[in-house]
Structure formats: structure tokens, C-alpha cells
User: Fold this.
Amino acid sequence: MAAAAALARLEQKQPRARGPTSQDSIRNQVRKELQAEATSSNSPGAPGTNVVPEPKEEISPHLAVPGVYFICPLTGVTLKRDQRDAHIKEAILSHFSTDPVAASIMKIHTFNRDRDRVKLGVDTIAKYLDNIHLHPEEKRYQKIKLQNKVFQERINCLEGTHEFFEAIGFRKVTLPVPDQEFYVLGEAARAQPESLEQHKRQLLNAEPVRATLDRQRRVFRPSALASHFELPADFFSLTAEEVKREQRLRTEAVERLSSLRTKAMREKEEQRELRKYTYALLRVRLPDGFLLQGTFYARERLPVLFQFVREALQNDWLPFELRASGGHRLVEDQALALNECGLVPSALLTFSWDASVLEDMRAAGAEPPTSVLRPELLAAMEQLS
Assistant:
């Protein structure tokens, strides 16, 4: 709130006002800023909400990662964030030449964003196919009227549905009476009712094709720069410039308003901070000093982080602990989101073997392994700059 008010003053090219000198003036200032925040939050086009950062023309050589990348599950190609949708659509369309049924199902679930509408349409198609399967001798179930109200409202409005009907054996015909279009099941499809049942299950169980986040797993040698993170704009919901500006203005305003910030105001500010970050870059310092780095969604849960670390270990069956800054222990079973644990937009964690396991090993005359990571990761080690 303080940052928004200070920004307004700067934009009006007014000299920065001095801090209030009395409790009454502080209260008046807070009241004005609350009203300004309420106005901006109710505006659908308010600045700073869901802003896609503009790509940088020059990429700093000191960035911890060059950006956020994704992997297409169909082609395995690594993509930038703004390339995902176009590439996946192209991959699905190219799949029609080899497997039109699977391609049409992917198109239905991926090209249509309204999940409730997709479910309604898919359930309706499944009902059509059930009627054919349960009543194979009934001719009326083997044709679907395209001008039917249910078909128009639930199926015709979805991309990929017409391709699906044609791929599973329906053909579009115009009947002379009453001169309307129908989908009529072909003879080859009628002779294989089990195929229709299989296609129905495929349609019902399918999920949208989405690019998966590339963890960009890297291993670094021990470095005094382990806690230094310079992140690209992709990691923020706001642009990088807006984030820097907010940080500068917040520093100027914290002391001025701290006397009147209520618990509710502080909690609201904390929630706003959590929403500001979309991704998290995490480094794990291992007992031998090596650093394991990976990219995560800010709302991913702790079990995902623990699994990421576990997959990099030579002895992945040994229990271990992760601690955040200040020695706070992260508990895998709590399944908290990374942003709820204060691990956004970046954090340095400390790895240690479970204390009880260490005691058992030492009691047996053994020591924990000195080399923690898998050999192939050590072979690709880099120098942190």
C-alpha cells in the first residue's frame, strides 16, 4: 500500500513527501492508501496483476538460469514459455496423419479451455457410443442428427469433436427426408463394436496435453556465491522492473507505516507477496559443498522438492533432511507449497542425512558416503559465476 501511494506521487513528479509527524497524520495517510488500493484491486485492468514479462533484449551473463523452459510431452522439444501452446497445437495436428483417433481426442481435451464444457461434451459422446454398444440392432442409435439441440449445444461447439466422429467410423450424410445432416456409423465400425468401446474409454480418460516444466537440473562446485541469485523476468508475475520499483518504494515506506500496520494488513501483504512469484529457483547445498539446482513452480509441494533431490542421490534410499535459511526444517509429509514455506523466488537449502540414520551407521562402524550425487551428475559439474 505504501509502495502504491509513493509511486503515485513519483508519477505526478511531486517531491517526495516527508513522513507524517503525528499519529493523526499517519492515520489519514493510511486511510488514503487503503482507499487507493481498494480502487486499484477492483479494476479489471489494474497494473501489476498477471502481467507477462516482456522478453529482455540483453541477457545478463550472470543470471542463475537463462529463463523458464518447458518440455513438450509429444515431441520432447524444449520450449520457451511463449512457445508452448503453438508448438503443442502443431504437434497434435501433425499426429492426425498417423493416429487420427488419438489426435482428435487430444484436440478435444487440449484446444478447448473450458473444462466443464469439455466434460459435458465428452459425456454426451460417450452416451451416444453406449447406446450403439448396448443396442447393436437399433438403427436409430447408429445415426446422429447434427441439427439436434443437444448436439449443437454440447458437441458442435467443441474443437475436435467432428474429427473424432469421422476417425472412429462415422460419415456425414444428408438424408433426403427431412433434408438434414446426420453422422451415420459405417459398416466397418458396426462390425467392430469393441473398437467403439475402446475409443470411448480413451476419450473419457484423456487429459489435456500440457508442456511440463523443465527442471534445468544443474550441479555446481562449492562456491561463496551459493546464496546469490540473479533471476530472469520469467520468474515473476510482475515485470522485473516493477518488482525492483516496489522493493525500493517499500523500503522507503516500511518505517513510516509500521506503527499502524495491523495483523490483518500484514497478512494481506504477505499473501500478495506469495502471489507475486510464479516460479522458484532452489539450490541445495550438500555435505561435500556441491550445489544442486532446479526450477519449480512456486505452488508445487514439498514432496516434489524432496523427490527431485532424492533422484539425484547415489543412495536414494537413505532418509535425509532439508533446512531453509535460519535452520528451519522442511517436513516432507506436511505437503506445504514452496511459496508457503518462503522459498520464492529463490532459496538456498541445506542437505543433511537423517540424524538417527547417522547414529546407526556410526554405531555399526560405518560412515555416511562422502560423495552424495550420482556419478553422471558429478561429471557434468559447473562453476557458479
